[in-house]
């Protein structure tokens, strides 16, 4: 009898161990009680006003109210100009990073290792120093070269950035604790993936802003429009599920949001093309000694006449002209709107999959009715990358300001040599 009891106890040990391993596996983490949610959250006053409504309509009203607040805030930031936009981008970036890192801490539950939280923020500061410094060098090199100290920082910017990163790398290795090796390396990887998603994308957003506010405002507003209209069409007409990762997403919402985004994109692009404030790139004027957004709009933002395809000629009998006058940027906005309505939502699906992996509803509770900052900007990061790739592939050409900034880093004799070569070239072409 005692022998049988021992055998049962010995058989139970691996089962108990397996269960504990199963519960502790990253695939089965349940963080629903660790991460606050904001989807069902609303201010007490609004809760009292809406207490008689069904949950579905209550949630709809809360989302609508705070969507209007966010749109109003977005308009005020645009009115504040490029500096306000860049500061807002930085704040959003930091908050998104915080939400992702907090999930990492909740997943791996490292106790007694205070340095790792500090390390995560150190890597964020180091990454921002590198990427934002790259932007300053590209767009304000002419101004920076006037100050000896700044010139030194610019000349060795990448070396300084690398040294800062190496400092963090050494700090991480020295902070390793024997029984936490796997969790520490997992969080190290988690931090770097968060940096890749958040910091790199915000860097591209800043680059888009410098190309002209229109390259930031139009894509961002397209994502907002698509998100709102997909929700509206899905709320009122949604019947057919779209994807299992997001059970509430429907084909009706996806198609309705896409069509609305294309129409909205054309209208807002046509409106903004008429104002130099939105279309002029942000540059440093050496003659004025300050940053300026005054320019002669490029051909991209001037009306151009296009001939309609030959099969439209039959419409001439009813008075439809054979040519169409439109801003070229409006045609480019079609590409942006198609991407934002077809591919953009997959940024949200990706975030939904991430949240489902850890059984959480939202990334945070900052925005009532919506969730965390990351819940609202998951599609924006993917859109920012596409816009930057689109600009560099189909639009951008090297500007004299950027070329001059590079020339100023040459030694004086090299600058003189370049001047003589350019002078000879111009004379040979009778210019």
From TrEMBL:
Residues 1-38 are annotated as: Disordered. GO terms for biological process: CDP-diacylglycerol biosynthetic process. GO terms for cellular component: endoplasmic reticulum membrane. It is found in: Membrane. Residues 1-11 have a biased composition (Basic and acidic residues). Keywords: Lipid biosynthesis, Lipid metabolism, Membrane, Nucleotidyltransferase, Phospholipid biosynthesis, Phospholipid metabolism, Receptor, Transferase, Transmembrane, Transmembrane helix. It catalyses: a 1,2-diacyl-sn-glycero-3-phosphate + CTP + H(+) = a CDP-1,2-diacyl-sn-glycerol + diphosphate. The keyword Lipid biosynthesis applies. The chain crosses the membrane at residues 60-79, 115-132, 152-174, 186-206, 212-238, 250-272, 329-351. It comes from the Eukaryota. Its EC number is 2.7.7.41. One of its GO terms (molecular function) is phosphatidate cytidylyltransferase activity. InterPro entries: PC_trans, PC_Trfase_euk. The keyword Lipid biosynthesis applies. It holds the Pfam family CTP_transf_1. PANTHER family: PHOSPHATIDATE CYTIDYLYLTRANSFERASE, PHOSPHATIDATE CYTIDYLYLTRANSFERASE, PHOTORECEPTOR-SPECIFIC. Belongs to the CDS family. This is Phosphatidate cytidylyltransferase.
């Amino acid at each position: 009898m005692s022998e049988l009891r021992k055998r049962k106890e010995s058989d139970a040990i691996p089962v108990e161990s397996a269960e504990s391993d199963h519960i502790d596996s990253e695939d089965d983490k349940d963080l629903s009680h660790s991460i606050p949610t904001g989807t069902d959250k609303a201010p007490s006053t609004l809760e009292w006003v809406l207490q008689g409504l069904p949950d579905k309509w209550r949630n709809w009203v809360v989302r609508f109210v705070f969507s209007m607040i966010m749109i109003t805030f977005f308009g005020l930031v645009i009115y504040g100009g490029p500096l306000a936009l860049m500061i807002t981008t930085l704040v959003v970036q930091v908050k998104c990073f915080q939400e992702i890192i907090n999930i990492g801490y909740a997943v791996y539950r490292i106790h007694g290792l205070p340095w790792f939280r500090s390390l995560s923020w150190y890597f964020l500061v180091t990454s921002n120093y590198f990427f934002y410094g790259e932007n300053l060098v590209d767009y304000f090199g002419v101004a920076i070269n006037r100050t000896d100290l700044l010139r030194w920082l610019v000349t060795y910017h990448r070396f300084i950035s690398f040294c800062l990163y190496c400092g963090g790398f050494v700090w991480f290795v020295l902070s390793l604790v024997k029984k936490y090796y796997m969790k520490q390396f997992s969080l190290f990887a988690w931090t770097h993936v968060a940096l890749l998603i958040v910091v790199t994308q915000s860097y591209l957003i800043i680059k888009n802003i410098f190309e002209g506010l229109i390259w930031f405002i139009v894509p961002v507003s397209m994502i907002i429009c698509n998100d709102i209209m997909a929700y509206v069409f899905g709320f009122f007409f949604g019947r057919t599920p779209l994807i299992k990762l997001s059970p509430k997403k429907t084909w009706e919402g996806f198609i309705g949001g896409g069509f609305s985004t294309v129409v909205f994109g054309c209208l807002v692009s046509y409106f903004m093309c008429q104002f130099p404030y939105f279309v002029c790139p942000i540059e440093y004027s050496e003659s004025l000694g300050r940053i300026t957004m005054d320019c002669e709009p490029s051909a991209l933002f001037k009306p151009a006449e296009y001939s309609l395809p030959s099969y439209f000629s039959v419409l001439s009998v009813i008075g439809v002209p054979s040519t169409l006058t439109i801003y070229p940027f409006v045609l480019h906005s079609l590409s942006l709107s198609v991407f934002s309505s077809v591919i953009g939502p997959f940024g949200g699906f990706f975030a939904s999959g991430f949240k489902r992996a850890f059984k959480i509803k939202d990334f945070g509770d900052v925005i009532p009715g919506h969730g965390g900052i990351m819940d609202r900007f998951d599609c924006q990061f993917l859109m920012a990358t596409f816009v930057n790739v689109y600009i560099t592939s189909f639009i951008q050409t090297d500007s004299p300001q950027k070329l001059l900034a590079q020339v100023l880093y040459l030694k004086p004799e090299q600058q003189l040599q370049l001047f003589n070569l350019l002078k000879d070239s111009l004379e040979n072409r009778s210019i």
